């Protein structure tokens, strides 16, 4: 019993329950709860840039083959596009069958169109060519200061390749980077002890601000979204795991701590550093993890893709707008692009949804105000699905490159397993 109580996963789950109770009974505590949650996320965010940089630099400098780096990155991007497109199609299919927007009373949702102005402004400023051009940093110091993942990723790849070309002259610098990387990961372990406080604050803020009563009018949509994401994880991703000969259940069990933290904080970014470390211990090589996990946070958002496709269909059903097959195919095409612009932070999905509706011009953009009250409650499902999708992607790409350590995998899923005997 003492061992269970001291386990971080148990502590986070208890913190989430306490957060729900505090949010229900003391809604005035919400601003303080938000401060607590945001402080924890900030502590994690301060470690993301150095962890990504050191992980990628060390992985590439020790691999030493830029063609291999390009091959891994190319495979990852093709995989991301394929899986997120499947997620979009599944979201459209379930929304058409389940019809969560049919019969919804708009007045019962207490929608306030004035609140969407910020998202509408942000969406109008989105330029997708600029988004991809933005990957190349103008000032890398500024990129580190802002925590721009894709810019840091780009610079780290170049730095790692340049370091690998130094040969033996770069050995001392690689050794220094390895020690610095260990220091950063030790800081992360200290910060993760505070995860229950972050989960408590996040849940108390959500319940205290929006209240459980906001769920009732849009309860059918929430059920549909959670059900669809569960189907995606346990059917689509499970089939991918089966094809690549590893267990989805064992992977979920291994990252259960990260899943419950994301559940409490509503942000997959809160466990990004932890996921990099864990996927390496799961058997994926450092170079693959360093490329796949950070890139996946912008290009492999399976949960966000499902949410976006279902939200467009839901809003069309609420306003009795019949979308033709051609229009729904257009939705798939637009979302294949716009869904890649969402980051792993709470709230960015709304900006992408606004930009998608602007591009489609079939559903009034003001209608997204209906979703404001329940968006936070669905962000947990989005973030968890994104997290699991990127974990699966890491193993898939590692296995396809023969960069997967089966001994580490067996040790990860069963820490008590005896080491294999080597008979001379």
Explain the overall architecture.
- With 424 residues, the chain is mainly alpha-helical.
- The protein has one domain: Sodium:dicarboxylate symporter (Proton glutamate symport protein, Orthogonal Bundle).
- The protein has helices spanning 2-5, 8-25, 30-63, 66-98, 117-125, 128-133, 140-146, 149-164, 171-192, 195-210, 219-243, 248-254, 256-265, 272-281, 286-299, 302-318, 325-338, 348-360, 372-400, 406-413.
- Helix 11 (219-243) packs antiparallel against helix 16 (302-318) and helix 16 (302-318) crosses helix 18.
- The two termini are 43 Å apart.
Structural category: mainly alpha
CATH superfamily: Sodium:dicarboxylate symporter
Rg on CA atoms, Å: 22 Å
Helix content: over 70%
The chain-level mean pLDDT equals: 83
> What's the total count of β strands?
0
CATH topology: Proton glutamate symport protein
Level-2 CATH architecture: Orthogonal Bundle
Roughly how many Å apart are the termini? 43 Å
Our estimate of the beta-strand percent is: under 5%
How many helical elements?
20
Q: Which outline best applies?
A: globular
Give the class-level CATH name.
Mainly Alpha
Q: In terms of per-residue confidence, which ranges show pLDDT below 50 for 5 or more consecutive residues?
A: 420-424
The SSE order reads HHHHHHHHHHHHHHHHHHHH
Q: How many structural domains are formed by the residues?
A: 1
- Largest pleated sheet: none
């Amino acid at each position: 019993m003492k061992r269970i109580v001291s386990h971080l996963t148990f502590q986070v789950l208890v913190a989430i329950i306490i957060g729900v109770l505090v949010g229900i009974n003391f809604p005035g505590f919400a601003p303080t709860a938000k401060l607590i949650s945001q402080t924890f996320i900030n502590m994690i965010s301060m470690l993301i840039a150095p962890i990504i940089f050191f992980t990628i630099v060390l992985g590439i400098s020790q691999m030493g083959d830029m063609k291999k780096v390009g091959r891994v990155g190319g495979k990852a991007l093709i995989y991301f596009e394929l899986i997120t497109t499947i997620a979009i199609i599944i979201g459209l299919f379930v929304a058409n069958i389940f019809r969560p927007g049919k019969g919804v009373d708009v007045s019962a949702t207490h929608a306030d169109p004035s609140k969407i102005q910020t998202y509408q402004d942000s969406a109008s400023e989105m330029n997708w060519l600029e988004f991809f051009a933005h990957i190349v940093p103008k000032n890398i110091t500024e990129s580190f200061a802002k925590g721009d993942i894709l810019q840091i990723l780009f610079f780290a790849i170049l730095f790692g390749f340049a370091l690998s070309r130094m040969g033996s002259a770069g050995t001392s610098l690689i050794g220094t980077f390895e020690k610095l990387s260990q220091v950063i990961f030790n800081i992360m372990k200290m910060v993760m002890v505070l995860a229950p406080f972050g989960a408590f604050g996040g849940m108390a803020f959500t319940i205290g601000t929006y209240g459980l009563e906001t769920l009732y009018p849009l309860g059918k949509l929430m059920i549909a979204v959670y059900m669809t994401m569960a189907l995606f994880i346990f059917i689509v991703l499970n089939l991918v795991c089966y094809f690549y000969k590893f267990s989805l259940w064992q992977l979920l069990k291994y990252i259960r701590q990260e899943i419950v933290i994301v559940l409490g904080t509503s942000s997959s970014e809160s466990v990004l550093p932890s996921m990099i470390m864990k996927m390496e211990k799961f058997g994926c090589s450092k170079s693959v993890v360093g490329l796949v996990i950070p890139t996946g946070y912008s290009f492999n958002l399976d949960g966000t893709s499902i949410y976006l496709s279902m939200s467009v269909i839901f809003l069309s059903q609420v306003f009795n707008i019949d979308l033709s097959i051609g229009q729904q195919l257009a939705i798939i095409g637009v979302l294949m692009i716009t869904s890649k612009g969402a980051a792993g932070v709470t709230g960015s999905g709304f900006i992408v949804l606004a930009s998608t509706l602007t591009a489609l011009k079939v559903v009034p953009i003001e209608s997204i105000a209906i979703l404001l009250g329940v968006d936070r409650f669905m962000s947990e499902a989005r973030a968890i699905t994104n997290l699991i999708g990127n974990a699966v992607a890491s193993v898939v790409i590692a296995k396809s490159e023969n960069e997967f350590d089966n001994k580490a995998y067996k040790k990860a899923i069963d820490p008590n397993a005896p080491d294999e005997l080597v008979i001379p």
